[in-house]
From TrEMBL:
<dbReference type="InterPro" id="IPR000873">
    <property type="entry name" value="AMP-dep_synth/lig_dom"/>
</dbReference>
<dbReference type="InterPro" id="IPR045851">
    <property type="entry name" value="AMP-bd_C_sf"/>
</dbReference>
<protein>
    <submittedName>
        <fullName>(2,3-dihydroxybenzoyl)adenylate synthase</fullName>
    </submittedName>
</protein>
<dbReference type="InterPro" id="IPR020845">
    <property type="entry name" value="AMP-binding_CS"/>
</dbReference>
<dbReference type="Pfam" id="PF13193">
    <property type="entry name" value="AMP-binding_C"/>
</dbReference>
<dbReference type="InterPro" id="IPR025110">
    <property type="entry name" value="AMP-bd_C"/>
</dbReference>
<feature type="domain" description="AMP-dependent synthetase/ligase">
    <location>
        <begin position="34"/>
        <end position="407"/>
    </location>
</feature>
<feature type="domain" description="AMP-binding enzyme C-terminal">
    <location>
        <begin position="458"/>
        <end position="533"/>
    </location>
</feature>
<dbReference type="Pfam" id="PF00501">
    <property type="entry name" value="AMP-binding"/>
</dbReference>
<dbReference type="InterPro" id="IPR050237">
    <property type="entry name" value="ATP-dep_AMP-bd_enzyme"/>
</dbReference>
């Protein structure tokens, strides 16, 4: 029995077309893992430090954890917020939830009380999986605070802790989920009607406050990963290093973890993104492909120049999440002796990749072209009409892995999607004659700080609770390191608080650290547009890029 509809579905003619084209395989992720394990049971699937799992091991571990979750009371369709750092347990748990028919809700390691509470409420999660401590932060205390706040936990019944639950005796140890190794009943090799069901929920960058949830089905998300893997040339000899947070769509499915496993390759989990850690893993595990965000690129090039590391196995270095400067792109390939692949996309769907055999100039100056022949792309002007190739406009898209609406957000969907199902991305792009896209900016009130999307209205709402701040405008301005940095323009009753004071204030309000302004500018009055809105373009123009 399929789950109750919580989001717009693809129209039947489109769904049938995607099935006929072979994009949608009609298999759930629980079934996919069973198939992969049967195909190459002894191949190494997953590596985390000294720990290694074959495909057969990963399949059996998914069964063990799924049985433990079922014993805890979880059932098909239950949503589970997963906030784990880069650990093998993220992958094991993810497939266990898929095998159970439950729905993982991806949370970032840096999310704090405001974001986690919101994800729990909007998804209706019955469980949350956290580390005990990560990056010197105690996640157990965060969940205890949410549970004691009657408005914050909703139907949440279980907190599962990877590590030590400490004094929280009602929390469940992750290790205690492990039950017997008997496989769950699952027929292999047949189409599964549940493949059209909700498989996971990704969080959006948000432009109008707290993030929305993006519903991804088994059919569309598997195609997302598989199509990207084919373009990257992944096969059973490929070794993917997960450097960025594993819960990111980029790291998990572009092609990332899922694409590598679908190809029969090996996923290596990096506990942190530093080049020192990553280079050691590349040497030891013979990594062939990995993914970075632009702020990490200079550090990797510097480390490559300082250290005589054996990186011969690394052939493809993906960079995405934000626009990579053209001059850095030109230096990256020669510096690390790799093929650069630029990646542009969104958790809402569309993924663009430069091809490995594209001319160097195209690789260094564009953000790629869509991965599917059935990706539909419109570039429109302010009047909503298509513009000619070469001219900037807003990117609208729909296709076999771009959902037709956000989860439980009917009012927002009427704004974010056109009546005929195109997603309004808010990205300003130019299309080249080759079909490649060049990202030139955004029209949404959102800041892309090194791949972390910050919704300005959300932060402004928190800033306005500060006793000294009477008006606030958060603006993104160009930055060489982060792509964009956030600047808070403040009108205050007295001297404007500094960046450190504001960071502590926002932290106390439960906001993720990366959302704190990088710079604060005190002003006497906000400039307004002719219609009475704060003129953020004028504010941004008063600052020079760094």
């Amino acid at each position: 029995m399929t789950q109750p509809q919580t989001h717009p579905l693809w129209p039947r003619p489109d769904a049938e077309r995607y099935r006929r084209a072979g994009h949608w395989s009609g298999r759930t992720f629980g079934a996919h893992l069973r198939d992969w394990a049967a195909r190459h049971p002894r191949r190494t699937a997953l590596v985390d430090g000294e720990r290694r799992w074959t495909y057969a091991d990963l399949d059996a571990e998914a069964d063990r954890l799924a049985r433990g979750l079922r014993h805890l009371g979880l059932r098909k369709g239950d949503r589970v917020v997963v906030q784990l750092p880069n650990r093998a347990e993220f992958v094991q748990l993810w497939f266990a939830l898929q095998r159970l028919g439950a729905v993982p809700v991806h949370a970032m390691p840096g999310h704090r009380r405001a974001e986690i509470g919101h994800l729990i409420r909007i998804s209706g999660a019955v469980a949350c999986v956290i580390p005990d401590r990560h990056a010197r932060f105690d996640h157990r205390g965060l969940l205890r605070h949410i549970l004691t706040d009657q408005t914050g936990s909703g139907p949440l019944r279980h907190v599962i802790v990877l590590g030590d639950p400490g004094a929280h005796r009602d929390f469940t140890r992750f290790e205690d989920l492990r039950a017997d190794a008997a496989p769950l009943p699952l027929e292999s090799g047949q189409e599964d009607p549940d493949a059209a069901d909700l498989a996971l929920l990704l969080h959006s960058g948000g432009t109008t406050g707290l993030p929305k949830l993006i519903p991804r089905t088994h059919d569309d998300y598997a195609y997302n990963a598989r199509a990207a893997a084919e373009i990257c040339g992944l096969d059973e000899h490929s070794v993917y290093l997960a450097v960025l947070p594993i819960a990111f769509n980029f790291t998990f499915a572009c092609p990332g973890v899922l694409g590598t496993l679908a190809a029969g390759g090996t996923v290596v989990v990096s506990p942190d993104p530093s080049p020192q850690t990553a280079f050691t893993l590349i040497e030891r595990e013979r990594v062939s492909i990995t993914s970075l965000s632009p702020p990490l690129v200079p550090h990797w090039m510097d480390e490559g120049a300082r250290r005589a590391a054996d990186l011969d196995s690394l052939t493809v270095l993906q960079v995405g999440g934000a626009r990579l400067a053209d001059d850095v792109a030109r230096r990256l390939g020669p510096a690390l002796e790799v093929t650069l692949q630029q990646v542009f996309g969104m958790a809402e769907g569309l993924i663009c990749l430069t091809r490995l055999d594209d001319p160097e100039d195209l690789i260094c100056t564009s953000q790629g072209r869509p991965i599917s022949p059935d990706d539909e792309v419109l570039i429109v002007g302010p009047d909503g009409r298509p513009v000619a190739d070469g001219l900037p406009g807003e990117l609208l898209t729909r296709g076999p892995y771009t959902p037709r609406g956000y989860y439980r957000a009917p009012e927002h969907n009427r704004v974010a999607f056109t009546p005929d199902g195109f997603y309004r991305s808010g990205d300003l792009v130019r299309r080249l004659p080759s079909g490649h896209l060049v990202v030139v900016g955004r029209i949404k009130d959102q800041i892309n700080r090194g791949g972390e999307k910050i919704a300005a209205p959300e932060v402004e709402e928190h800033l306005l609770t500060h006793p000294l701040i009477t008006q606030a405008a958060l603006v993104g301005v160009p930055d060489e390191t982060w792509g964009e940095r956030s600047v808070a323009f403040l009108v205050c009753a007295g001297p404007a608080p500094g960046t450190r004071e504001l960071a502590l204030f926002l932290q106390e309000r439960g906001l993720a650290r990366y959302k704190a302004p990088d710079q604060v500018v005190g002003i006497t009055a906000m400039p307004l547009t002719p219609v009475g809105k704060i003129d953020k373009k004028l504010l941004a123009g008063t600052l020079a890029p760094t």
